[in-house]
Amino acid sequence: MWKSVLIQRTLPLTLSYLLLIIAAISLDYFLHVAHFAWIGRYMGIAGTVLLVFSFSYSVRKRKLIHNGALKFFLWLHCKAGWIGTLMILIHSGIHFNALLPWAATLLMLVVTASGHVGQYLLKKVRDEVKMKIKQLGLKVSDEEIDRQHYWDTLTVKTLEQWRTLHIPMVSVLMALTLIHILSITFFLNWM
Predict the structure, then answer these.
(1) So where are the chain's domains?
(2) Which of 7, 40, 135, 150 has the fewest CB atoms within 10 Å around its CB?
(3) What confidence tier does 144 reach under pLDDT thresholds 50, 70, 90?
(4) Assign residue 68 a region: left if phi > 0, alpha if psi is -120 to 50, beta otherwise?
């Protein structure tokens, strides 16, 4: 099991996800200690802009943008998504004063986890499992392949289902974000 794709590929992504949460908590704490907590308000705006910018990958994938390598847009999607999520987590802080922003924040964490697992990992896992099975050749029965690569096969089958959850969650997250922005705009003290 320790040599399985599940451990070798998902562990680094899990650490990246945990690093995101730890970095957000740490940076929010330091902003509060330094009496710069007000910066968090503006990080929400910048983080949202980065997340919107990360959608350029989806636009390029659907060929609405014709120039640029798809691989670059995926890289940009991952980096802008990670940094934007970090900024929005700092914006959210550790404040329990409203349900809507917390619902959006929790959903954003789920969407980010889904993205970590999703497109980036799925292709690598598929390729690696195919390579392992191909290396076995014809000397091993299908039952032996299933037994030896149970965790690999299970990982691939699970990862293939990620888009069916990821896209609807992103849509709900966008709706919650829009409601949050509209409510802040409506209730903001303009004077």
Answers:
(1) 5-187
(2) 135
(3) low
(4) left
